[in-house]
Specification:
globular, 10-stranded mixed β-sheet, alpha/beta
């Protein structure tokens, strides 16, 4: 597939788990007297399907990077081929993989990152972009770096909504006793507990089966995820709660980044920025189509009649959030 190179091949001498460069080979000078860049292979892994937005970003990044730095190849491992979350994030910290397209899994290492999960903080994805691309996003990226994760790019997942087999969600009362899977971030957990739901911890890569077997009644994700992960096959209702503006990001092992030449580091940064812009545009165009697709395949879509009751029920989440999240929330509200 585009942007991947020998995905299933293991790299000799490295167990296939780190960026490698050829050695023991004398470089041939170019016409201008500078040696060519040594070959570099970067391993990127995630737990989402190949059509998930994280892998859309990953393929744009991989293709762009190789065009800008022909010596660099990116091997993409989707579908939890190298492990489930949060093990993949830990693998980036340890340097056994180079890049992870991830999400709330690293909030345990970077408490302030959970601010992006605050319920009903953002009304649009554009508001979230404004924060991510500005000083607040830069400070959060610095927090991630201290924890062993170099943020190289952000991307959109979409406005999060609730799918369910129990019935449509129209008000906070409809969450009472609902068995719902949410990501492992503390704000996610607090939000749905405040709504009265029974929160279940299930790896994203195992969610389809959990819904199919009735282990949980519901999950919450944007329409594009409902389509790409085929949750519409095992869910009946989709309620447009718009409770969070969902994002994700790519993190790289800092040592893997730092050991590259300046030319390669610059190419990584530029390829990631291009992937972020293009993926955001692609998602904006695809959300409406994904919702229509799910409806055509049997999903019943509704707009909650009492969304305000959900907002009121979750107001206490901020009061119980970490000091970092409270500070970032205040800063965000000042700029959106």
């Amino acid at each position: 597939m585009s942007g991947t190179f020998g995905r299933r091949a293991l790299l000799a001498g490295a167990g296939g788990l780190a960026a490698t460069a050829s050695i023991g080979r004398r470089a041939i000078p170019t016409a201008y007297g500078a040696p060519p860049e040594a070959p570099v292979t970067l391993k990127l892994a995630d737990s989402g399907a190949e059509t998930w937005q994280g892998n859309v970003w990953a393929h744009i990044f991989a293709d762009t990077l190789t065009k800008q730095a022909p010596a660099v190849r990116v091997e993409i491992y989707p579908n939890a081929e190298l492990g489930q979350d949060p093990a993949l994030a830990q693998a980036v910290q340890m340097g056994t993989i180079d890049i992870n397209v991830t999400g709330p899994q690293i909030e345990q290492n970077v408490p302030g990152l959970a601010v992006f999960d605050m319920p009903f903080l953002f009304e649009t994805l554009e508001q979230e972009h404004h924060v991510q691309d500005g000083p607040i996003g830069a400070q959060i990226a610095a927090d991630c770096l201290k924890a062993g994760f170099r943020v190289i790019g952000w991307f959109d997942i979409g406005m999060r909504n609730v799918s369910s087999n129990r019935g449509p969600i129209n008000s906070a009362a409809d969450f009472k006793g609902l068995k719902i899977r949410v990501p492992p971030g503390p704000v996610f957990l607090a939000t749905f507990q405040a709504l009265g739901a029974s929160v279940q911890a299930i790896d994203f890569g195992e969610l389809y089966t959990a819904l199919q077997q009735g282990v949980v009644d519901a999950e919450e994700n944007p329409a594009m995820t409902l389509k790409t992960m085929k949750f519409y096959e095992v869910q009946k209702y989709f309620s447009l709660t718009r409770h969070m503006a969902s994002f994700s990001f790519a993190v790289m092992n800092p040592a893997s980044y730092d050991k590259q030449t300046k030319a390669v580091r610059d190419a990584i940064d530029e390829a990631a920025a291009i992937a972020t812009r293009e993926q955001r545009d692609n998602l904006a165009k695809g959300e409406a189509g994904a919702l229509a697709f799910c409806q055509q395949n049997g999903i019943i879509v509704n707009t909650p009649t009492d969304r305000q009751s959900m907002i009121e029920a979750t107001k206490g989440v901020l009061q119980n959030a970490s000091p970092e999240v409270q500070a970032y929330t205040k800063a965000i509200r000042a700029v959106i």
